[in-house]
Specification:
Elements lengths: L1 E2 L16 H8 L3 E6 L2 E13 L27 E6 L3 E8 L6 E8 L5 H7 L17 E4 L7 E4 L16 E4 L1
Antiparallel strand pairs: 1-3, 2-3, 2-7, 3-6, 3-9, 4-5, 5-6, 8-9
Amino acid sequence: MAGQRRQNRILSPDFFKSDALELAPKLIGKYLVREYEGNIFRSIINEVEAYMGEEDLACHASKGRTPRTEVMYREGGHIYIYLIYGMYYMLNIVTGEKDHPQAILIRGTQEVSGPGRLTKFYHIDKSLNTKLLLPETGLWLEESNIELKYKTTPRIGVAYAKEWALKPWRYVAY
């Protein structure tokens, strides 16, 4: 929803220095906030997926440190954006400590379901890649004081990752 510059407690980059599996369920119920062309879009996150480093075959870091994945090796709180199918940007939040690549894919909010539709709705593109989640960059998360129940399921679209595809690392509010 577009709105004014009302602010709840902004989550600092330090908030994201936790392990992705510990942090992913905590993102359910937080506000995703985007400031774009003078408008504020704010909605509750209701679906995320965790990716756990070089050993996780579904994680981009499983191929090692590359120009594309370099941002994943930064400390938590950085934004990792990549393009799939040549047309959809994916919004990921880097988590954990420096040199331990982990990220959480934001798959949906209460207003928008699907990671490609989400980035289109929020005007999120590669220009945000490697930036910190802060109001100064135009993309951040806020506390909502809303607690949503969630379930875990296997991640979507990563069947190539064999047993890693079956990990229940997708968190969906219900």
